Amino acid sequence: MNFIEKIERLDSQIRHGSTGNAEELAQKLGISKRSVFNYLKWMKDRGAPITFSRIRKSYIYDQEVEFVATFVSSALMQEVEQSNNI
């Protein structure tokens, strides 16, 4: 399973509220507990509002989000950056 597939599976587990704790999630994904934390950090660094719910005993999204893996042209990114600086 490649990086994007692991992120997609992690996203799916979070959406279904079925991650369990980090150790359980690592077993479900077939990765180490340390890798779970690395993937969660990668997602959070890119804006994913992930928290751990002690009540649900699962990682959850604090708000509704979509994970989209795509390529964006440099020209479009420059337009976005310029519009953000206004």
Largest sheet: 2 strands, antiparallel
Mean pLDDT equals 91
Q: What is the CATH architecture assignment?
A: Orthogonal Bundle
Global Rg: 15 Å
Our estimate of the beta-strand percent is 5-15%
Number of contiguous helices: 4
Protein name: HTH domain-containing protein
Domain Helix-turn-helix type: 21-51
Please give a structural write-up.
The protein is mostly helical and 86 residues long. The protein has a single domain (1-86), classed as Winged helix-like DNA-binding domain superfamily/Winged helix DNA-binding domain (Arc Repressor Mutant, subunit A). It is 52% helix and 9% strand. The chain has four helices and two strands. It has helices spanning 3-15, 22-29, 33-45, 74-84; strands at residues 50-53, 58-61. Strands 1-2 form a two-stranded antiparallel ribbon. A hairpin with a 4-residue loop joins strand 1 and strand 2. It is elongated, with a radius of gyration of 15 Å. This is HTH domain-containing protein. Residues 21-51 form the Helix-turn-helix type domain. Pfam families: HTH_11.
Question: Could you give a quick summary of the protein structure above?
Answer:
This protein is mainly alpha-helical and 86 residues long.
SSE blueprint:
Elements: H1 3-15, H2 22-29, H3 33-45, E1 50-53, E2 58-61, H4 74-84
Antiparallel strand pairs: 1-2
Domain Helix-turn-helix type: 21-51
InterPro entries: HTH_11 (IPR013196), WH-like_DNA-bd_sf (IPR036388), WH_DNA-bd_sf (IPR036390)
Protein name: HTH domain-containing protein
